[in-house]
Amino acid sequence: MDPQLSLLMANQARVTSGDIILDPFVGSGSLLVAAAQFGGYVLGTDIDYLMLHGRTRPTRIQKKKHREKDESIRTNMEQYGRSSQYIDAVVADAALPMWRADFKLDAIITDPPYGIREAAERIGSAKSYIISEHHLPGHIPSKVEYGLPNIYMDLLSFAARHLRVGGRLVSWVPIVRYYYY
What we know:
This is tRNA (guanine(10)-N(2))-methyltransferase TRMT11. The protein is of the alpha/beta class. 24% of the residues lie in helices and 20% in strands. The chain contains five helices and seven strands. A five-stranded parallel β-sheet has the order 3-2-1-4-7, sandwiched between helices. Strand 1 (20-23), helix 2 and strand 2 form a beta-alpha-beta unit. Helix 1 packs across helix 2.
């Protein structure tokens, strides 16, 4: 996410000192850095373990084959002097929220995947199978397509349950311009 756009989103969310901010599609964490600049305590989730740990190939620099060890959310927060505001980033599926019912946020700031640069996926399978107890600890679940209507329905439902009264959801919504001519 472009740094200026990240700051605009944090500003639209009216992030202030002490706010708790979540990005459920955190990726590389640029929205967390911006929210922390406004004083928020930030956390994120993403389904992509490798992305969270800075082990994937950068999407914008196609010739570069790997990330350096200083290319992670944690090190981004350190570089901007915001380590104390970084709560954590957790591997989680936005379609299967893991939060307690009484967990409240001051803002949700996110740029969900559209399936163009990053895959739009959720945990699931077209097959029906049962995983044995023996294999469960090391099981890596398969993923299925997570369409935009489902992404936004889940995001709005999550926001309705977990935003405090007066909290804000700020998100990008993709449009195809030729529909508007």
